[in-house]
Design brief:
Elements lengths: L6 H6 L2 E5 L3 H11 L4 E5 L2 H8 L6 E5 H7 L3 H8 L4 E6 L6 H7 L4 E4 L4 H11 L10 H4 L1
Parallel strand pairs: 1-2, 1-3, 3-4, 4-5
């Protein structure tokens, strides 16, 4: 499902797939990004790979549950199957260390819940080249 993107803007915008088995988190992330990016909710990795055949995403945002279900190796598989695509993982906590594991396995970064519009947009903008990165100390995020 895609909401709120004007067709004229969608052509110039980057495309994002939000892959999460939780419909509420998918909808929340799509809402946070839809006015700047062509954002699509996708319920599974299989659906994301199928959809990518006709519309390649620039970024795939995955939940921790989706990555754990598929195995960390999926983070290396995504850019092989969808060349040029970047990945971000939404993790439940900094304490479990999964974000760092995901990055070591090939993710380009991660978000920690609870998500804020400002932080999600900043991270996505930097990753997709819309603005320069600013380092945020981890103790500010925790």
């Amino acid at each position: 499902m895609q909401i709120g993107v004007e067709t004229s803007r969608a052509v110039e915008n980057k495309r994002i797939f939000v892959v999460d088995d939780d419909e509420i988190i998918r909808a929340a992330l799509q809402f946070m990004l839809h006015d700047e990016y062509e954002t699509h909710e996708v319920a599974s990795l299989a659906e994301a790979f199928a959809k990518a055949e006709s519309m390649k995403p620039d970024l795939v945002i995955l939940s921790e549950n989706v990555v754990k279900g598929a195995g960390l190796s999926v983070l290396a598989e995504i850019p092989q199957r969808i060349p040029g695509t970047k990945t971000l993982v939404v993790v439940d906590s900094l304490q479990n260390g999964f974000g760092k594991e995901a990055q070591a396995a090939g993710a380009h970064g991660y978000f920690v819940k609870p998500l804020t519009v400002e932080f999600v947009r900043q991270k996505v903008d930097v990753l997709l080249g819309r603005r320069q990165g600013v380092a945020i100390p981890l103790n500010v995020l925790g």
